[in-house]
């Protein structure tokens, strides 16, 4: 998740096409088979079965640099900025079903997939617009009790989630004073805040990133996503008992600063761009 320094697109259409691959997944999506632990503690293995780790293999070791969300048997949603840092090698591998990144005795049964292709609506590094990336895997995923897709929010286009607590998960930093990331995924409930006031706050940032209706802002200074969580899912529990990925971790100023909520790319703003990509890849 890029950290910004404080200073001294795609709008939905009314028509919704049916996506064969996503449609048949609706019976399987958004339902974890493992109960979760709530309240800032480490989550149980398989609690969020669509959570993906995006990174590289270094010898026999997997090194995670970003998070992601499994949305079909062949596609993972993440953030474009994970592939836009010239200081680092771009991620080449998606790992599903992982828990403790440093252990082989945690009862997880991870599956690794090579990133065979990527699609983006056109990420702008300067403004941070369109921070939305689809990863195409080199093989179909075999779903099981700890690897399942999240639901896409087709019916949530008009929901602004104002004052709703959403859940962000990832292997990111757990402290603003340390650069060390967590070896196990952590979760935090973050309240959605008004996008207009969030946009005004970020106009005080030197780079003046764009925050508009294509984004969700969440967090009030006590819990937040942080470095290493980039690209991971912001989850909404629907009335049907399923979880929907409604946001992608994008950027913020530091972590958990009350004047600068975390900014997430809003998934519903890109559904019309996304559907043809999933159909054609």
From TrEMBL:
Keywords, comma-separated and alphabetical: Disulfide bond, Hemolymph clotting, Hydrolase, Protease, Serine protease, Signal, Sushi
Reactions accelerated catalytically: Selective cleavage of 103-Arg-|-Ser-104 and 124-Ile-|-Ile-125 bonds in Limulus clotting factor B to form activated factor B. Cleavage of -Pro-Arg-|-Xaa- bonds in synthetic substrates
Protease keyword on record: yes
Keyword Signal: yes
Transmembrane segments: none
Pfam families linked to this entry: Trypsin
This enzyme's EC code(s): 3.4.21.84
GO MF annotation list: serine-type endopeptidase activity
Enzyme class, broadest EC rank: hydrolase
Peptidase S1 domain location: 37-279
Gene Ontology BP terms: hemolymph coagulation; proteolysis
InterPro entries documented for this protein: Peptidase_S1_PA, Peptidase_S1_PA_chymotrypsin, Peptidase_S1A, Trypsin_dom, TRYPSIN_HIS, TRYPSIN_SER
Gene3D superfamilies referenced in this protein's UniProt entry, alphabetically: Trypsin-like serine proteases (2.40.10.10)
PANTHER family linked: ACROSIN-RELATED (PTHR24252), HYALIN (PTHR24252:SF7)
Record-given protein name: limulus clotting factor C
Source species: Penaeus vannamei
